[in-house]
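Q: Give me the 3D complex with WQD.
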Amino acid sequence: MKILVTGGAGYIGSHTVVELLETDYEVVVIDNLSNSSEEPLRRVEQITGKSVDFIQGNILDGELLDQIFSQDKIDSVIHFAGLKAVGESVQIPLKYYENNISGTVVLCEAMARNGVKNIVFSSSATVYGDPHAVPITENFPTSATNPYGRSKLFIEEILRDIYVSDNDWNIALLRYFNPVGAHKSGRIGEDPNGIPNNLMPFISQVAVGKLPLLSVFGDDYDTHDGTGVRDYIHVVDLSQGHLKAVERLQDNPGIVTYNLGTGKGYSVLEMVEAFKNISGKDVPYKIVERRPGDIASCYADPSYAAKELGWKAERGIDEMMEDAWRWQSQNPQGY
Ligand code: NAD
Ligand code: WQD
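A: Here is the predicted complex, encoded as structure tokens.
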């Protein structure tokens, strides 16, 4: 089976390409390298001993997509390509709508033209907005508070409309919780541009001495220690969820939605403590104001994915920390 992976040079994409190659899928990657480089794919080839067919290009380029679909018999698409910085999406919403939404429309048009109708889409727990309760099940109401989140919600709706118009499509909407960690080899991992927005890369850059101090955004939330609680999921577990979703599409399920999370919530201070224990490094921090838009608690009920996909996250918090630290300490400047 041959899979087209959009955004395959990125953080989650590169880890998923490793899992695909190791399971003997053939892989074609399209990525415009707007938030990555070719280096992760070179390292994926070293890890797996297999070659990656890489096309540098934009998913907004329908002609290029036609060429790819006509040259290779693609069975399914795993669609990671997208912009993902929440704050930036507030500053430049049209860029997010064009890249994420128009990009998906152009991709789906090309898929339809070429008779490829299986797609796994990277959605996000952000579509649950500020959830009324935790753990979160797939049937919770959805909402968005920023253009990034809205782009994910709109794309989910567009994919539902495509399915209504043509039942031959098989579509998996995967709602990721908070991906962290790295491949065991320490060769690929998360490499954000500039100062990280997300907690885990911030902690590891403080530990490695690139950043002086972690700002903990608020300690007065309604959580056990007052700091925000999230469902951190190892990126390799998350990647393996995509392989299960690709398999699931072969059973012609129509359109399906799964939470990919662990079901466990950790606070910011618990994450700092766990990281310190594993790395032996100090992570100095100070408590600052809440970050606008943040919520108190967000964690998944992952039981539907367990039942339907036969997938569950296997890697616990210590393994997430060990692997994040191996990547960061062996690649202090990233790629
Ligand atoms: P990433 O930025 O590391 O990877 C995305 C890749 O897509 C990058 O390599 C980028 O160059 C590429 N890309 C962007 N626009 C493109 C376009 N128009 N054409 C071709 N390539 C393009 O991000 P990631 O963390 O690996 O996230 C992958 C997907 O998962 C994204 O859609 C993101 O919104 C979603 N997601 C991520 C998280 C997270 O916390 N990392 C959580 C939920 C959902
Ligand atoms: C986690 C916790 C912060 C940084 C974001 C997106 C979401 C999804 C995943 C794509 C929160 C606290 C953070 C710091 C801190 N991405 N924190 N100091 O906000 O849950 O989710 O990434 O879909 O859409 O919104 O993740 O890692 O930014 O924050 O105290 O420097 O860490 O307040 O409680 P978040 P995060």
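A quick observation: The longest strand covers residues 118-124.
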